[in-house]
Each structure stands twice: as structure tokens, then as C-alpha cells.
Amino acid sequence: MTTQLQPTLRYALVSRSTLAINTALAVGGTLFIALMAQISFPLPGSPVPFTGQTLAVLLLGTAYGANLGLATISLYIAAGVAGLPVFTQSTHGLSHLTGATGGYLVGMAAASYISGALAQKKLDQRFSTVIPTMLVSNVVIFAFGVLWLQHVTAQSWSWTFAHGFTPFIAAEALKIAIASTSLPVVWRLVTRLK
């Protein structure tokens, strides 16, 4: 099985596209997200912990492109729901998808697709265009997350923002800075090597 080549880091580094290669990349990406999910700190009073998942999703979605990025985060979510200990603190189960953090997981899937689609337009290759790409992707994650958190907890909107959005702003800004600086640097290295 082959797919049309897209101008993403995945194709710059591994130009062949077969079912075996794509499966290996999806499994490897799932393991990366699971590892980053273990970087987890509970926030007082919030059912949503700080994790490294969003950084992993931003990097993988952008590097893999829309379809493979979405397939990878979908595989990660499916693995956790099926019982593999891939969620924060090596947990698993459907409650992660139906509970307070479910919207963030769905938002990560959507953000992975969006960041991948924008990367396919070469927006991840320059600092000036990758930063808006990362911002849009983060807005998508938190839009799904905050809406779902408010629905599940039935708390006020002020409580929801105070426990599901505001505490994450500084950390997400740091993640955006990491992704936005690393992607163009990797592209420059890849271009020089080619």
C-alpha cells in the first residue's frame, strides 16, 4: 500500500510509504505519546493533570502529516481504552475517554490532524509559520477539552476555565516554544543532509 508523498518530516526522513512502514511509525508514535503521558503532575482541585501528551501530539501530528498523525493518536487512544497502560500514571480504561479528560484526548486527535494538514502545506518549516500552526492546534485541544470538562463536571464556566485551561497556559506556551523552535531546526538539518 502506498500513499501520495507529502512534504512532511516523515517523508523527508523515510521516503517509502508502505503498510509496514506506516504501521511501525504509528506504533512508535503511540509509544512516544504514552511515554510523554507519564510526565504527569496533578493540579490541585483539577481533574485534569499537566502532562507531556500535548507536546508529543504537536510534534507527531506535524512530523507525520494529517492522516498518519490522526491514525497514531487514534491508536494511542484505542490502546488505552482497550486496557494497555498508556495514559497518565500508566492507567487505562474507557473512563479516560468518557470522563473529565476525554475532551482533551479527542481534541488531541483533531489537533494532530490539523497540525499535520498545515505541515503538508510546509507551514512547519519556518518559525514565522510554525508558531501559528502550534497555536491553532493548542486552541483545538483546549476547545474540546474545556467544553467536555464543563459538560462532564456540570461546574460553572469560571470553575471550568480555572481548572481546565488557565493553569495550563504557561506550560502550553513552553511546549509551543519547544515544538516551534525544534521543527524548523530539524528541517534545516534534513535539507542540508539531502
Give an overview in words.
The chain has 194 residues and is mainly alpha-helical. The protein has helices at 9-13, 19-37, 53-64, 66-82, 95-98, 102-119, 127-153, 157-164, 169-193; strands at residues 40-41, 50-51. Strands 1-2 form a two-stranded antiparallel sheet. Strand 1 and strand 2 form a beta hairpin. Helix 2 (19-37) runs antiparallel to helix 3 (53-64) and helix 7 crosses helix 8.
Q: What's a concise summary of this model?
A:
By secondary structure, this protein is mainly alpha-helical. The protein has helices at 9-13, 19-37, 53-64, 66-82, 95-98, 102-119, 127-153, 157-164, 169-193, and strands at residues 40-41, 50-51. The mean pLDDT is 92.
Number of domains: 1
Distance from N terminus to C terminus (CA atoms, Å) equals 25 Å
What amount of the residues lies in strands? Answer: under 5%
CATH topology term:
Arp2/3 complex 21 kDa subunit ARPC3
Using the coordinates above, name the CATH class.
Mainly Alpha
- Residue runs with pLDDT of under 50 for 5 or more positions: none
Rg from Cα: 16 Å
Mean pLDDT: 92
Helix amount, in percent? Answer: 55-70%
Keywords:
194 residues, mainly alpha, Arp2/3 complex 21 kDa subunit ARPC3, two-stranded antiparallel sheet, 9 helices, globular
Topology:
Layout: H1 9-13, H2 19-37, E1 40-41, E2 50-51, H3 53-64, H4 66-82, H5 95-98, H6 102-119, H7 127-153, H8 157-164, H9 169-193
Helix pairs in contact: 2-3, 2-4, 3-4, 3-6, 3-9, 4-6, 6-7, 7-8, 7-9
